[in-house]
C-alpha cells in the first residue's frame, strides 16, 4: 500500500513539473510565433541546433565545440535564407550540412549515417516551420494551429492513457502509450482544428478537423520514432534540458513530425510562399 502511495506521489510530482515547464516554455514559443521574422527564425534555429546535439549525444557520437559552433552558424544561415525567401539557397545549404554531418561521422570512424540523420531530422522541421510562418497572410495562424493541435494531442493522450488505460499500442518501444490515449489525442486535435478553422471565414472547418486528426496520428508516430531511437541506443531521455521532460527532443518529437508533413501539404497545394494558405484555405 505504501508503495502505491509512493508511486502515486511520484506521478503527481512529475505532472506538476511538466505543468511548470509548459507554463514557462509555451508563452516563449507563442511570443516568438507572434513576433515572426528573425525572432521566430532565431528560435527555430536554436531549437534545431539543440536537437542535433541531443541526437548526436544520444547516439553516442557527441560533438566538439567547433562542430557545435559550425552547426549553429549553418542553421542560422539557413534560417536567414528562408526568411529572405531564398528557399533554393536554403535547401542547398541544408544539403551541404547533411553531407558534412556524414563526413564528420566518417572522420570519427563511425556513426556517419546517424550523424547525418540527426541534421536532417532537425533541419527539415526547422525549414518546415519557417516556410509555414513565412506566409504573411496565414503564417501566424498556421503555426499556432500546428502548435495547438500537437499540444492538444499530447495532453489528451496523456490524460486518456492515465485515466482509461487499456491495451498498449507498441509496448516494446513505448510501454506507456495506449490505444485509449491515441484516440483521446486524435479527438482533441480534431476539436482544436475545428475551433481554429471556424474563426477563418474561408477555411472548411470540417476538413481542417479531419486533417488535424490525421496530424495527431503523425505526432504520435513522431513520438514512437524517438522512443525507438532511444531504445536502440539504450537511453531513457534525449537530454536533461527541460525538467520533467528530459531533453528538447523529448518535448518536440511530435511537433517536428507534424511540421514536416503539414509543410509538404501546404507546399503541394499552394507552393512554398503560400504554404500556410495551402494548409488552411
Structure description:
This protein has 281 residues and is mostly helical. 79% of the residues lie in helices and 3% in strands. The chain is built from 10 helices and 2 strands. The chain has a two-stranded antiparallel ribbon with strand order 1-2. It is globular. The relative contact order is 0.12.
Assembly state (oligomeric): single chain
Number of strands: 2
Give the amount of beta strand, in percent.
under 5%
Low-confidence stretches: 1-8
Distance between the termini: 55 Å
User: What is the count of helical runs?
Assistant: 10
Largest sheet: 2 strands, antiparallel
User: Taking all residues together, what is the mean pLDDT?
Assistant: 86
Integer-rounded radius of gyration: 19 Å
Overall morphology: globular
Spatial sequence of strands, sheet with the most strands:
1-2
The helix/strand class is mainly alpha
Percent helix range: over 70%
Amino acid at each position: 500500500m505504501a508503495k502505491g502511495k509512493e508511486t502515486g506521489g511520484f506521478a503527481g510530482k512529475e505532472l506538476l513539473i511538466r505543468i511548470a515547464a509548459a507554463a514557462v516554455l509555451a508563452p516563449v514559443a507563442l511570443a516568438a510565433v507572434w513576433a515572426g521574422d528573425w525572432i521566430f527564425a532565431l528560435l527555430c534555429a536554436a531549437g534545431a541546433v539543440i536537437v542535433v546535439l541531443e541526437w548526436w549525444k544520444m547516439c553516442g557520437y557527441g560533438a566538439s565545440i567547433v562542430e557545435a559552433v559550425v552547426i549553429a552558424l549553418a542553421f542560422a544561415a539557413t534560417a536567414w535564407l528562408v526568411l529572405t525567401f531564398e528557399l533554393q539557397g536554403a535547401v542547398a545549404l541544408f544539403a551541404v550540412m547533411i553531407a558534412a554531418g556524414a563526413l564528420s561521422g566518417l572522420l570519427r570512424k563511425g556513426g556517419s549515417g546517424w550523424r547525418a540523420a540527426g541534421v536532417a531530422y532537425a533541419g527539415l522541421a526547422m525549414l518546415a516551420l519557417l516556410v509555414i510562418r513565412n506566409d504573411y497572410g496565414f503564417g501566424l495562424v498556421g503555426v499556432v494551429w500546428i502548435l495547438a493541435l500537437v499540444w492538444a494531442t499530447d495532453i489528451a493522450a496523456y490524460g486518456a492513457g492515465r485515466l482509461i488505460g487499456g491495451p498498449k499500442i507498441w509496448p516494446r518501444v513505448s510501454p506507456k502509450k495506449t490505444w485509449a490515449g491515441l484516440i483521446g489525442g486524435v479527438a482533441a486535435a480534431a476539436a482544436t482544428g475545428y475551433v481554429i478553422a471556424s474563426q477563418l471565414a474561408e477555411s472548411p472547418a470540417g476538413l481542417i478537423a479531419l486533417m488535424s486528426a490525421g496530424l495527431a496520428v503523425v505526432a504520435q508516430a513522431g513520438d514512437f520514432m524517438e522512443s525507438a531511437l532511444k531504445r536502440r541506443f539504450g537511453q531513457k531521455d534525449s537530454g536533461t534540458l527541460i525538467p520533467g521532460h528530459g531533453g528538447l527532443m523529448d518535448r518536440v518529437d511530435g511537433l517536428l513530425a507534424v511540421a514536416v508533413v503539414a509543410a509538404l501539404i501546404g507546399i503541394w497545394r499552394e507552393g512554398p510562399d503560400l504554404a500556410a494558405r495551402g494548409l488552411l484555405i
